[in-house]
Amino acid sequence: MTTVATERTNTPHFVDGAALRDALCESDYIADDELATVVHLATVLDRPLLLEGPAGVGKTELAKTLAEVSGRRLIRLQCHEGLDDSRALYEWDYARQLLHVQMLRDRIGVELAEFETLPEASAHLAAQDFGLYSETFLAARPLLAAILSEEPVVLLVDEVDRTEESMEALLLEVLAENQVTVPEVGTFTARTRPWVVLTSNDTRELSAALKRRCLHYHLGYPTAERERNIVGARAPEVETAAVAEVVELAGKLRELPLRKSPSISEVIDAARIAAVLAATGRSASDSPELLYSALLKYSSDVDLVQGRGAPAKAPEDDRAVPRPTVAARPANTTTNVFRGHGGKGHGRS
């Protein structure tokens, strides 16, 4: 059996990238023209959007804000190692199936009593359709839930690079055809066409088959100006001077070979710490180590920064500089479709 549903779209579409950018800005997501235009194209062309870049630059938040400004429900699939189809697509509700069989037991006994031999009773039973394998007994997981949804949704497949490559194959039918096939039932076609956003922290190269089905955008750390705007929008209680100071510090830290560079959300936390210190008469510039609790999350990074002194100053003795105990961030091997700037400097926590 094949289930085909009529698509309905009753959520607002944006006229152009500028209109989408303004809508995102009203929800405190600061996107530039290029990023907003790519997102707009993905919605108009009904193509999945693959966002790649370092952790903490606003990829997940973009999908959440897109759902908010478009009036669509957000369905999120959080990827992890070991994720399989029973957690991503569907599984059968065996408890309900068993209960259904128990409710039919007496009726089945009456019908089978009419047959004199066991083979006849078995053949009759095998020919019956008890409805056990139908949509009623499907426990829909995020991918199937997005396909079956009667209302338009934004489907977020978060951190797809954390799964095995075999999991990518399960996504292809959804990404390319907007449908899911259940062998026991048939093919479910999207009842409303979902907007699909995939994110990757670029920890491994994704398959060419998956990339071929998506529009691609690399989201890097924002420029200092844009990050000041982001922090100002998310932490309006912090003075402009303190925001600028924290953003400058974060920028200098990102130039070091840290195990984990400060994310935008961590910069926002650091700005709020600076505001609390200012209220007590202390300056964050005089005690930058107090900001490290928000900006640096590994002791090796703290040792690296403190061993070299303030990030803006050269170390007095290079031989005394502790080296990181783990490899620096892996090189970004993602193919950059926007050559020259590649979407860098865009995003928000």
UniProtKB/TrEMBL annotation:
Residues 322-337 have a biased composition (Low complexity). CDD domains: AAA (cd00009). SMART domains: AAA. Residues 308-349 are annotated as: Disordered. Residues 45-225 form the AAA+ ATPase domain. NCBIfam families: MadB_ATPase (NF047784). This is AAA family ATPase.
